[in-house]
Amino acid sequence: MKRLILLVGVAVLTLGLVACPTEYENGLAHIGDAPSLRVIWDNYFPMGNIIAATTFGWQAGHTADIGNPARERLLRRHFSLLTAENEMKPDQLQPTQGSFRWVNSDRIVNFANDSTHPMGLHGHVLVWHSQSPVWMAPAGNRAAAIANMRNHIRTVMLRYGTRVESWEVLNEVFASWVTGTPNAGNWRNFLRQPAANQTNWPVAIPLDTATGNCFIWYAFTIAREVADEIDTAAGRPVGTMVLYYNDYNEEATGKMNGIYFMVQEMNERFARENNGRRLIDAIGMQAHHHRGHVTGQDARPGWTRQSTAASVQTAIRRFASLGVYVSITELDITVGNTDVSVLTAAQERAQAIRYAELFRMFRNNAQYIRRVSIWGVNDNASWRHQGSPLLWDAQLRPKEAFWAVADPEAFLANPDNFARDRTIAQMRDAAVNIPASAWD
Question: Are 314 and 252 a contacting pair, CB within 8 Å?
């Protein structure tokens, strides 16, 4: 019976109906029927997603991906690059000083480096104020903080070597909402002030006005030193491993300018001291966006601002003008509060239109973009599950947002052609820019 359903699924299954509960619940029929996002976007940029080796109890209905055949199959079919969602964060790798635990991160690295289905792997994250042990950055002890930072970065990067192709060195150093006007001389005035229970790197390693060194400089120069060791040992040119700065709300003008001038200063100084070399290779734009009325966890001051494809494009081009790569690193788009109300057809359509607008813009700016990563597989496993932000629903059925990403131009021309009540065959007929190989 299972084999028969899979054979006739393309012709007769309807995305919005549950014709065979077991097939729809495990997701296999849908994963095999829908075109591969990886193949669709391969000529433009790699498509990425996150992966989890274990279930995080505090994260809603989050489900481990490794060991779940449906989720593993989905990730391998649709994506070519992975990011560990939690397992490579500092508090997961080194919860107590000098005591590293590798079990879950090793599982992710081994999954990505499987010779049968090799995938790229991005390391997330080496230095961050959140999900990091407070002991790492002791206030008033600059030397100890630098030593802790150096030991963590070196130990983690050297363990994985070339099996990780890029590293997020530093995450979210600017305030969530920058209301002033950062420039080349004052961008440090807009840095985040971590909460009392968070790792306060700016206080532990403040700016040394005599040398110009600060926690940002140390993080990247330490990581660059280790990256060069890895590249040299592998017999490849130094600079092959890509080092990222990552942040959110990057398309907001104030924060965009703060990031721009920080990266500019760090890279210009490093270039002067190192024969023109670049220190920060790439800027990661998290791209946690919102569509429509925002409630639930996102109903906080400022978070109701609506980003647009045009504002994201402005940030991409401004960052690219620095001569660095730009990646969309954590894309998701919430709609309303679906924890207390079911995702409506209107919400699903509005969300899909925003995804389509973004991916149409990404295609037009592909020369600036190194990769695009979605932050999660399906809605109920998302850290922002309150707003159903992803491309697949709780049963791993592709939403309208999936089709908006698969063929944004065709979707925007006639969204009804990709509604939930259409069959795969009908959607295939409606598609314009999906190569035949993507359906294999």
Answer: no
User: 181-197, pLDDT tens digit by residue?
Assistant: 999 999 999 999 888 88
Check whether the bond before 164 is cis (ω within 30° of 0).
no
Q: Is the pLDDT of residue 9 over 50?
A: no
Domain spans of the chain, in order of start: 37-439
CA angle (336, 79, 337) in 5-degree steps: 10
Q: Which of 247, 265, 357, 400 is catalytic?
A: 247
Sign of CA dihedral 274, 275, 276, 278: negative
DSSP 374: E
Tokens of residue 248, six digits? 């959110």
E strands present in 108-226 = 120-128, 166-171
Q: Which residues contact 417 (CB under 8 A, 6 or more apart)?
A: 410, 411, 426, 427, 430
**Has 172 been annotated as catalytic?**
yes
Tell me whether residue 330 is one of the annotated catalytic residues.
Answer: yes
With H, G, I as helix, E, B as strand and everything else as coil, classify residue 61. Answer: coil
User: Looking at 53-62, 74-83, 148-157, 191-200, which range is the least confident one?
Assistant: 53-62
Residue keyed to tokens 């090793």: 106
Q: Which range is least confidently modeled, 106-110, 283-287, 294-298, 415-419?
A: 294-298
Q: Using alpha carbons only, how large is the chain's radius of gyration in Å?
A: 22
Q: Choose the catalytic residue: 23, 65, 87, 330.
A: 330
What confidence score (pLDDT) does residue 32 get?
Answer: 64
Query: Could you give the 3-state DSSP secondary structure of residue 319?
Result: helix
Neighbours of 367 (CB within 10 A): 8
Yes or no: domain 37-439 corresponds to CATH 3.40.190.170: no
Residue among 337, 127, 117, 152 nearest 243 (CA): 127
Is 247 among the catalytic positions? Answer: yes
Both tokens of 115, joined, read: 């010779």
Task: Provide the token pair at 198.
Answer: 């968070």
Q: Which amino acid is at 44?
A: Y
**Is the distance from CB of 355 to CB of 408 less than 8 angstroms?**
yes
CA dist 296 and 402 (Å) reads 24
In order of 86, 151, 325, 359, 373, the CA distances from 263 in angstroms are 26, 24, 12, 26, 22
Residue where the block lists tokens 């660059």: 224
- Rounded to two decimals, what is the model's pTM? 0.91
Structure tokens at 250: 């990057």
The active-site residue out of 23, 87, 172, 407 is 172
DSSP-derived secondary structure letter, 35: P
**Distance (Å, rounded) from C-alpha 323 to C-alpha 257?**
15
Instruction: Report DSSP letters for 333-371, one per residue.
Output: EEES-TTTSPPPHHHHHHHHHHHHHHHHHHHHTGGGEEE
